[in-house]
Design goal:
The complex is a heterodimer of chains A (232) and B (247). Helices cover 78% and strands 0% of the residues of chain A. Chain A is mostly helical. Chain A has a single domain, classed as MetI-like fold, CATH 1.10.3720. In chain A, helix 2 packs across helix 6 and helix 5 crosses helix 8. The longest helix of chain A is centred in the middle third of the chain and has 37 residues. The mean pLDDT of chain A is 91. Chain B has two domains: 155 residues, Rossmann fold, CATH 3.40.50; 67 residues, no CATH class. Chain B has nine helices and nine strands. In chain B, the strands form two sheets. Chain B has a six-stranded mixed beta sheet with strand order 5-6-7-3-8-9, with helices on both faces. A three-stranded antiparallel beta sheet of chain B has the order 2-1-4, covered by helices on one side. The relative contact order of chain B is 0.18. Classes of the chains: A mainly alpha (232), B alpha/beta (247). At the A-B interface, helix 5 and helix 6 of A face helix 3 of B. Chain B: Belongs to the ABC transporter superfamily. Chain B: InterPro entries: AAA+_ATPase, ABC_transporter-like_ATP-bd, ABC_transporter-like_CS, MetN_ABC_transporter-like, P-loop_NTPase. Chain B: It comes from Marinobacter profundi. Chain B: Its main location: membrane.
Chain lengths: 232, 247
């Protein structure tokens, strides 16, 4: 019975196991902060690419789309090189801190948010353009209007970004180091426990991770449906 | 009515609406001439109804006049100083994914109307167009007629000196058409220059002060409504008024 993964997961949850709790909280903190930062940067970036015509715009779109598939270990490596003692930002002493993990996840999530919001905003602009020009709106003024009107689509985009951030292990492992009590998150803990042969605990953590992602998605869906019905 | 709106109203009632002048205007796309060259001046009291068969270039002419498109040749000029305040109502109203009142407040905001008067102006306009009960409903779940009235209300709050309407009633039922035509008359009485396209000759008879008749991308005639309907000069207009199918 004690070796049953579900039993282990449940007992960890029911007993509010302190180390598990810490791991879960850190995982959420890192991923949510990364998604928030990526959204603040990525949504205006996506909208700007949708709105303005400039030389090399096609290239920017291709790069953004391609970066959606950026392997997490490559993102981890880039941030590692940037933050390592010998790197350009080495003096900050950021490597192997949660801050480094946030940076790595921003690198992973930003292209997803920018590329998908570019697509949504451009679709919407096709529909709104004449009315906007008629109202005398500049492109800069169109941006907030479009982002707000695309809010339901962007919520889904946000979830896609959060899914990527919370599920990846390569980048946070490399720049965080999986230090117990400091930078250990759910995915790195699962890798570690699996390596140690502690499969029930690994599976237990996996179930917790899955449940959290489900809950966040369900919550977002519920909020989205409610507001969608109110705002049409 | 706020002082702002009142002053706008007063100024437009005293001043005649700005005249619109097309000088040798042509528009071509990919080497294909779609409109013109045409020259005319809209300086009467109107409303001006732009008529003609489908594909004659009516919508194109409106978009050029409103500045949504630039002519490839010729010049479009307005009397008076600068570009007059203008608005356009489209065949399919383009409404934001927000409540009815938020749509009007947005239009006021982008035109730099002070925040404190926006709600009042928006609610007044909704009341004027019989939409008070829908103020907080999402604009996109309103009926087709209500949506078009909302688009007219959005134009109304901007106090345009010129209002363009592109087939505003072609997708509506008779009751909704009646409401739109009443709104057009209200704009006209406020001193707004009305330039409206329609392919419905009965609607044109109800509304027109003068008629600009197009076919094949050319202006065939520009005459007072009475003259157009009773004694059209060009063969195309004669056929159109007689109810024949004109290309």
């Amino acid at each position: 019975m004690e070796n049953n993964a579900f039993y282990v997961a449940l007992s960890l949850l029911v007993n509010l196991d302190a180390s598990l709790f810490q791991i879960v909280v850190l995982s959420l903190q890192v991923s949510l902060l990364a998604v928030l930062i990526a959204a603040v940067l990525g949504f205006p970036l996506g909208a700007a690419v949708a709105l303005w015509r400039f030389p090399g715009r096609g290239g920017v779109i291709v790069v953004l789309n391609a970066l959606m598939g950026l392997p997490p270990v490559v993102a981890g490596l880039m941030v590692y090189l940037l933050l390592s003692r010998a790197g350009p930002l080495g003096e900050l002493g950021f490597l192997f801190t949660p801050g480094a993990m946030v940076i790595a996840q921003v690198v992973l999530v930003l292209p997803i948010l920018a590329a998908l919001s570019r697509q949504k905003v451009e679709e919407m602009l096709g529909e709104y353009r004449e009315q906007f020009v008629s109202l005398g709106m500049s492109r800069g003024r169109m941006m907030p209007t479009l982002l707000w009107d695309a809010r339901f689509a962007l919520l889904t985009v946000l979830l896609a970004g959060f899914g990527r951030a919370s599920a990846e292990v390569g980048a946070v492992m490399m720049v965080g180091g999986n230090i117990d009590g400091v930078t250990r998150v759910m995915t790195t803990a699962i890798v570690l426990e699996t390596g140690k042969g502690n499969l029930p605990l690994a599976l237990g953590l996996g179930i917790v991770l899955l449940t959290l992602v489900m809950l966040i998605n369900a919550g977002a869906y519920w909020v989205g449906e409610r507001t969608r019905r109110r705002a049409g | 009515m706020t002082s702002l709106n009142a002053s706008l109203l007063a100024s437009s009632a005293v001043m005649p609406p700005p005249a619109l002048c097309f000088e040798g205007v042509a528009f071509s796309h990919e080497d294909k001439l779609l409109l013109g060259p045409c020259s005319f001046t809209l300086d009467g009291i109107g409303p001006t109804l732009v008529m003609g068969p489908n594909g004659a270039g009516k919508s194109l002419l409106l978009r050029l006049a409103h500045g949504l498109l630039s002519p490839t040749e010729g010049k479009i000029a307005w009397s008076g100083e600068g570009r007059p305040r203008q608005a356009m109502v489209f065949q399919q109203p383009v409404l934001l994914r927000r409540s009815a009142v938020a749509n009007l407040i947005h239009a006021l905001a982008v035109n730099n109307i002070p925040r404190r008067v926006r709600s009042k102006l928006a609610l007044d306009a909704l009341e004027r167009f019989g939409l008070s009960a829908c103020a907080n409903k999402p604009a996109r779940v309103l009926s087709g007629g209500q949506q078009q009235r909302l688009a007219l209300a959005r134009a109304w709050v901007l106090s345009p000196q010129v209002l363009f309407l592109d087939e505003p009633t072609s997708a509506l039922d008779p009751a909704a058409i009646k409401a739109v035509e009443a709104a057009v008359r209200e704009f006209h009485q406020r001193g707004t220059r009305i330039v409206m396209t329609t392919h419905d000759i009965h609607q044109a008879r109800r509304l027109a002060g003068d008629v600009l008749f197009l076919s094949g991308g050319k202006v065939r005639e520009h005459t007072p409504a009475e003259a157009f309907f009773n004694t059209p000069v060009s063969p195309e207009a004669q056929a159109f008024v007689a109810g024949e199918l004109v290309e």
